[in-house]
Amino acid sequence: MKELESASPAVGPAGSEPGSGAEPQGSSSSKSSGQHHGPSRGSAVLGMGQETDAVEQKDEEGKKEKKKKGGDSSFTFFLRVFTYNDTKGWLLNFIAFVCMIISGTVLPLMDLVFGKFVNVFNDFVIGELSPAGYRSKVGEFSLYFVYLFLGKFVLDYAWTVLVNLTAIRTTKELRIDFVRQLLRQEVSFFDSPSSSVSGQVTTNGNLINNGISEKLGLTIQAISSFFAAFVVAFAVQWKLTLIVISIVPVNLVVTIICVILDTAYEYQMFEIYGRSGSLAEEAFSTIRTAHAFWAFPKLSRRFENILEDAAKIGAKKSLIYAILFPIEFFCIFAGYGLAFWQGIRMYSEGEIKDPGTVVTVIFAVLVAAQALTQIAPQTIAISKATAAASDIFGIIDRKSQIDSLSAGGEILEDFKGDIKFSGVRFAYPTRPDVPVLRCLDLDVPADKTTALVGASGSGKSTIFGLLERWYLPTEGSITLDGLPIEGFNLQWLRTSIRLVQQEPTLFSGSIYQNVVDGLAGTGMASLPEEEKRRLVTEACQAAFAHDFIEDLPQSYDTIIGERGASLSGGQKQRIVIARSIISNPKVLLLDEATSALDPKAEKIVQQALNNVAKGRTMIIIAHRLSSIRGADNIVVMSKGGTIENGTHDELIAHNGAYASLVRAQDLGHGSIEANYGEEKEDGEVQDLDNHIANVSTAASAVSGIAPADDDEGYSLATGLWYVLKEQPDLWVPLTVTFICGAAGGATYPALAVLFSNTMEGFERMDVGKVNFFALMFFVVACGNLVVYAIAGWLANAIAQHIMKFYRAELFRNTLRQDMVFFDQPEHSTGSLVSRLSAEPTNLQELISMNLALMLVNIVNLVSSSILAIAYGWKLGLVLTFGAMPALVGSGYVRIRLEFKFEDDTAARFASSSGLASEAVMAIRTVSSLALERAVVERYRAALEGIARSAIGSLGWKMLFYALSQSVSFLAMGLGFWYGGRLVSTGEYTTGQFYTVFVAAIFSGQSSAMFFQYTTSITKARTSMNYIFALRRKRELNDTDDSGGDGSNEETLSEKGTAVEIEDIGFAYPLRPRLHVLRGINVGIASGKMIAFVGASGCGKSTMIALLERFYDPTTGQIRTDGQGIETRNRRLHRRDIALVQQEPVLYQGSIRENIALGVEEEEPGDEAIADACRQANVWDFIASLPEGLGTPCGNQGLSLSGGQRQRIAIARALIRHPRLLLLDEATSALDTESEKVVKEALDRAAAGRTTVAVAHRLSTIRDADLIVVFERGRVAERGTHEELIAMRGMYYEMVLGQSLDREAA
């Protein structure tokens, strides 16, 4: 662990910017669960390689090595958490620490008072004290109890408030540092995450907070009690204490070994839950794909298989608990027997002068042993916190290979923008045998526009990844203005070279916030607000985004939802362009920057980009050749090298690879050549805002959303009843556990009876009687050994089952919510995943050994009270109904306060973790914009609010907690005073008094102990209600009941679906006043191909969403084969449909698994998969990979290039054998050659099928049976390609914008 210790100064106290100079300690480790964002994240900056890092793997192995070397050494991680305290934090912690220690001494001091009282009692019984003298002594000792109560109350209140306060502040700083250190890692680190960030930051943060607040305080208090008790005991009678102390080492050794093993298992389970969180994050962030392919059963199976692995390790913990708890309780009760047995011997032989001494020693040892039993449940929390801390420090200590937050490196004052690649070779580290760039030489002269074209996977986007320094070249050099790129400051480099990615990535927040992010890291970031607003407006005007933004309800302040979900692809693209140009960078990299735009918008944006290009260097990657015809130099790439370059005209004249690409995209066929000269001048495009979407194409809330989970909540008892009722497998183990708990609780009244009988033996010096009852104590101890062993084993088995069952159910039920649920801002991927992780954990924390221990306390409370009243009703009633209500009442009030607090905090932390996870999912965007520091600051601001509100509610909560922990001393004082009076008047015998009093002490202590579980109770209730609420809201079920007439299913299955769209109107549920579609009427005959074209944001993709039944139309009806789709079961409806989306979505796992997701139930054979791949023109590429179909796709499929992902997505759609094929820009990410082949494949696949295609590249849909032109949510024109050309309307304008055929001719 040396390197970890040496690293800790780098992490340093809160507020300091930790260096990343620590030893590399491990890569993405983690565990626990949850988090975020979608397919649009992360861009297609990848060629064929799978970019994970070799170094990362070594780190991972190194880390696992360290893990193996004993769990105890990882305790240093736990201690390291405290280095995040500032001076105020250390001071408060110190005061809290002192209060904990003094508070721990109160119980042992009570033993002294109790011992002295026994002597007074004895003196009275044997006649040495008069009744009056006896009563005055009793009054004096009773006062001591009042003093002890006051001391305990004040001390407990002080330490609980202080330790919670510092815990919140410390974990806040730790979370911020974690996010900071995470964002500084190199990009390849994120390409194969083993866990999700919101899971790490939420669950681990909460576990650490739990472990360094009350749980730690209770542990220190218990340790203090332990030592104080022995100090008292040794001071009173050293010899008897030495005999009795033998129970302690056994207890201690067992506890330590069990805790070390428990921590080791916890850590292994963290690793596994991290994998499940990562899967959930992908599934939730790409929910449309999961819905379209009804992938729920397969994703759920995959998720449950991961949980199964965790359950196997969890099962090993049963043995630990079956040893830990029974040994503790056995040692305590056997200790009583030992003490009385030796005590009576020493008393009878005159070694001990009075019985009070024996009682003091016994009670002191009892307090010490009980302190140990209190440590055990807390150590579980501390071991979890330790595992969580080592997980978090694994990331914090990892040294980034390319540190984006490093302040080092050169800054060129006069940067011209001259870029040169010399002999550059590159392969992604995990596939070193698949070269992506082969000895690339490329000159990009300053202030010129260079275009890169070529097949997908030829290395174009990889060039951008190397320029952004996401990766390091394997060989060769890259220079800027003649200087090697490695020498430059990263923030300066990334703000000077701006990138617009193929898949536009926006962050939740307002449009203004998204565009102004483009100023982060530059000198302009500190400009006044009005100046920034002016720059934002100018950038949006230049990117042709201003008009549609002005049409939105709140203009630039419109909140756009997670990943910009409430905007269409084209609208997102233009905002991204505005964000990239706002800082006026010297170099602009455009990776398919206009691929999501319709032809008209593309033309205008292209003009805007051409204007922007003046005076700067531009590199453009494009598959639509119309967008790069004006470039100064066009470089044609193939297989990682360049094959030709020159201007458009030169390359056409050369009649090589480029000319054939141009011909493939030709739209003309002469029908336009004749009219070409009539093309309108550019100046006449003034009415373009007509084509602009003022509308959303993928809903997400903007304002005024109804709260998500506003359903009625169950009480704890009702919730528990429902949970247990639906788990018949657990009824037997639960019943046995309950019986064991009841037996454990009933032990205490038995002890009270044994104790009073033993004390009577002391009074009469009856050695035989005392010896007999000492033996009885040992018998009770043996009984407890058996009872707690069974309870410990079964309780863990129940806890593991609960965790597995409800985590899996929560995953299933979240997936199966309807689309509106995912559109709500509070249901961001980050918050859903962090709740998927946190809620089952909270439920498990209660339905585990804690439930058994709570039952022990309840049975103890009830049975001891009954015994007290039965033995001596006067004193029994006074103690039970005089003191107990104050105890129970204060604990209950605290639970109520905590419920409210817990609900609020859970939601707040989930949303702040969403912020972090969103940044990580879009790490390429964050790094290319140099946004790391800004994200950390935003995260800090989000946490500041949580910390403030949490601290505000501590005062009241802890007041009642302190009362519940100390009021039992008042009860004892009352018992002594009143009991003493009853004995002095002869109304009670000593046996009665002892029985009633000891029973009352036990019941008082048990209720105080019970209220230490309030946190578990609170969290579990919140979690149960969340789980039940999701279950009630679940929309999509697997039943095959078609809900309509399914009789003709079979006869229809061979031919394509006939679709009638009748008078459809639609507004997204969260924006009911914004109409996206108005009065759409379209009929699609069976087996025909129909195309939707139009400006981005005009409602094309929304029509696809309605056909998939992601939403139901507001007005009108869609019918398939004559049946209204709203009457059909959604599963059956979607079984006939396959969707290929604009932004292709793949999941972690192999290519085979991704394609197989297209088939709902059974697993297709390799031959069927290969066949689908051939149809999608991706088989040759897959066959060329070393692992073939088994090749992992990486996180979100990012190990593959955009075009490769797109073709795999098409293969996944085709293997479904759909009757209705929906293509939403299905070929937008393909190069011309692939597009041509895939188009042929789709044409073949479309034979006999009905196809609906949304396209901006008109060459892909010219052969459609019907082309429908959308404008502002209405149908503007319809007809075949030739008919629409003849109409010379909007479609004609679009075709002109894309025509390249003059030069090709």
Automatic annotation (TrEMBL):
One of its GO terms (molecular function) is ATP hydrolysis activity. It is a multi-pass membrane protein. InterPro entries: AAA+_ATPase (IPR003593), ABC1_TM_dom (IPR011527), ABC1_TM_sf (IPR036640), ABC_transporter-like_ATP-bd (IPR003439), ABC_transporter-like_CS (IPR017871), P-loop_NTPase (IPR027417), Type_1_exporter (IPR039421). The keyword Glycoprotein applies. Residues 1-71 are annotated as: Disordered. Residues 55-64 have a biased composition (Basic and acidic residues). GO terms for cellular component: mitochondrial inner membrane. It comes from the Eukaryota. PROSITE patterns: ABC_TM1F, ABC_TRANSPORTER_1, ABC_TRANSPORTER_2. The chain crosses the membrane at residues 90-110, 144-165, 216-236, 242-265, 319-344, 356-376, 730-752, 772-795, 851-871, 958-979, 991-1011. Its main location: membrane. Residues 94-384, 736-1019 form the ABC transmembrane type-1 domain. Residues 419-664, 1059-1297 form the ABC transporter domain. Pfam families: ABC_membrane (PF00664), ABC_tran (PF00005). The keyword Protein transport does not apply. Gene3D superfamilies: ABC transporter type 1, transmembrane domain (1.20.1560.10), P-loop containing nucleotide triphosphate hydrolases (3.40.50.300). Residues 15-37 have a biased composition (Low complexity). It is found in: Membrane. Keywords: ATP-binding, Glycoprotein, Membrane, Nucleotide-binding, Repeat, Transmembrane, Transmembrane helix, Transport. One of its GO terms (biological process) is oligopeptide export from mitochondrion. PANTHER family: ATP-BINDING CASSETTE SUB-FAMILY B MEMBER 10, MITOCHONDRIAL (PTHR43394:SF1), ATP-DEPENDENT PERMEASE MDL1, MITOCHONDRIAL (PTHR43394). Belongs to the ABC transporter superfamily. ABCB family. Multidrug resistance exporter (TC 3.A.1.201) subfamily. This is Leptomycin B resistance protein-like protein. It comes from Hapsidospora chrysogenum (strain ATCC 11550 / CBS 779.69 / DSM 880 / IAM 14645 / JCM 23072 / IMI 49137) (Acremonium chrysogenum). The lineage of its organism: Eukaryota, Fungi, Dikarya, Ascomycota, Pezizomycotina.
